[in-house]
Design brief:
Elements (H helix, E strand, L loop, with lengths): L2 H33 L2 H22 L2 H7 L4 H33 L5 H8 L1 H18 L3 H24 L4 H22 L10 H35 L2 H36 L3 H38 L7 H16 L3 H7 L3 H54 L3 H31 L4 H23 L1 H22 L1
Length: 489
């Protein structure tokens, strides 16, 4: 199978499983938001923040190093496997002992038991990390997505059942633990790789030599993506942190999943293109375009419909999250379009650039978060994060252009028409929803009709004006007809 077909198949399997899993997960999150209080989400956010402060040291960049490595892969996989498990056990011990200190810092004694149980996911996930990385390396995403999809479904349903039984925050905790355990078990059902006993110091140093740059950037990225939670939880309290956490999930759900999908599928592919600048450039901008086709309408719809969505679906107790959702939708759009840039740095042999970019972002956030909260509260935090993301986009894009010999005007040429189509569709969709609400139609149906209008109008405009989309759509229809004909015979 050609590299292009492997990438296409990878995006199909990863994207399909992610779409199904995240759609279900989003629906469960909405139900949980109606069943649980903002304080429950805030408590989970604090525990997650503490765990994430350690998780970046779990892998030490060995996953990316394995994907990049071309020689003696099996020995490297064995060394990486036992290293990751050992580091995970150490990290769990640290989290267990530090739990009371975390609770004291956030003035929330309920955090201690929640954190100690949730931290089990660190150890559980370490067992299956290498088998899943090796499947990514071979671009075998069909098998790789199975345990992750099943675990997501199982964990979500476990959380929902426990929430209905009145378990409160523990519904969220045990849902995550159960999902992670299910993923670890299923990983070995789909992977033929089995760990052997052994540790090779030379291989460890080679993996660490590459992975240390990834790990360093992950430390900084953790700081960037979580320092706002730290300040919000400490200065504004557990309830506000819960509202902020949900606002981020709702507004960044597409961005988070697009980024996760693109980086997991394209990094192994881009490593195979290193040395061929023209192919890497074409592949990069092609992905920017396709990601933008999805990200722009979702971001605009999120901004336009946030008010009605919160009041109709989430109920009034989540009203303080409306403006943060709208602002963070811009942040999510930037993240989506920039999803490939980090993989270009890694595949282009410049992982240290990730570290440099992450460092300035962390310093900027650390310096400006306190005055942003004092002046603007939660809204100030959202605007600061969005502004930093915009500046980061331009810095990263210029560095990417140095690797692939690209130009800034290309980004504008690719995204401007898409933004116009999305704005037209979004405005008409909102108008339809408001008109239906004025007629007295059930508010949920009016909201759904507005969303459907956006999909139909945006799809029609894109199909009419975008020749490449038409060509790809016609190819897809032809493949489906061919498959039907083969099945008929």
């Amino acid at each position: 199978m050609s590299l292009r077909k492997k990438v296409s198949h990878g995006i199909f399997w990863e994207g399909g499983a992610m779409l199904a899993g995240r759609t279900l997960g989003f629906a469960v999150t909405i139900l949980l938001a109606r069943l649980l209080a903002p304080e429950d989400f805030g408590l989970l956010a604090i525990a997650t923040l503490a765990i994430n402060s350690m998780v970046f040291l779990q892998e030490l960049g060995f996953g990316a190093a394995l994907i990049y490595r071309e020689e003696d892969v099996d020995t490297a996989a064995t060394t990486a496997h036992w290293t990751i498990i050992a580091s995970s056990l150490v990290l769990y011990g640290i989290v267990f002992l530090a739990a009371p200190l975390v609770a004291l810092f956030f003035r929330s004694p309920e955090v201690t038991p929640v954190l100690r149980v949730l931290a089990l996911t660190i150890v559980i996930s370490s067992v299956s990390r290498v088998p899943l990385v090796l499947l990514s390396k071979e671009l075998d995403f069909r098998r790789k997505v199975m345990p992750e999809f099943a675990a997501g479904v199982g964990g979500n349903f476990m959380a929902l059942i426990l929430a209905l039984l009145g378990w409160g925050v523990w519904a969220l905790v045990w849902g995550q633990v159960f999902g992670m355990a299910l993923s670890a078990v299923l990983a070995y059902r789909v992977s033929s790789w089995r760990p052997k006993w052994g540790f090779h110091r030379k291989v460890f140093l080679e993996l660490f030599g590459y992975g240390k740059h990834i790990a360093a950037s992950q430390v900084l990225i953790f700081g960037i993506t979580n320092i706002d939670d730290l300040f919000v939880g400490r200065m504004l309290g557990q309830e506000t942190l819960g509202q902020y956490n949900l606002a981020y999930k709702v507004s960044n759900l597409p961005a988070t999943n697009i980024t996760r999908l693109v980086t997991r599928v394209t990094f192994p592919a881009f490593t195979k293109l290193r040395g061929d600048v023209a192919r890497m450039r074409n592949a990069f901008f092609r992905l920017v375009r396709y990601v933008s086709l999805l990200a722009f309408p979702v971001a605009i719809a999120t901004i336009l419909f946030a008010h009605d969505f919160v009041h109709i679906v989430l109920t009034d107790k989540w009203a303080p999250a409306i403006v943060p959702i709208q602002i963070l939708a811009i942040y999510g759009l930037i993240r989506s379009v920039a999803a490939n840039m980090g993989t270009i740095f890694q595949a282009g042999g410049k992982p240290q650039w990730l570290t440099g970019i992450a460092a300035w972002r962390l310093v900027t956030m650390a310096v400006l978060l306190y005055p942003a909260i004092r002046l603007g509260g939660l809204v100030g935090v959202c605007w600061l994060s969005t502004g930093v993301a915009i500046v980061d986009f331009f810095i990263s894009a210029n560095l990417v252009n140095r690797i692939i010999d690209g130009r800034m005007i290309t980004y504008l040429r690719l995204t401007a028409p898409i933004a116009v189509y999305a704005l037209i569709a979004g405005g008409l969709g909102l108008a339809i929803e408001k008109w239906l609400l004025s007629t007295g139609l059930w508010d949920v149906l009016a909201l759904a009709a507005g969303g459907l209008t956006i999909v139909l109008i945006y799809g029609a405009l894109t199909w009419w004006r975008d020749r490449e989309v038409r060509q790809e759509g016609q190819k897809l229809v032809a493949r489906l007809r061919q498959a039907d004909a083969l099945n008929a015979t």
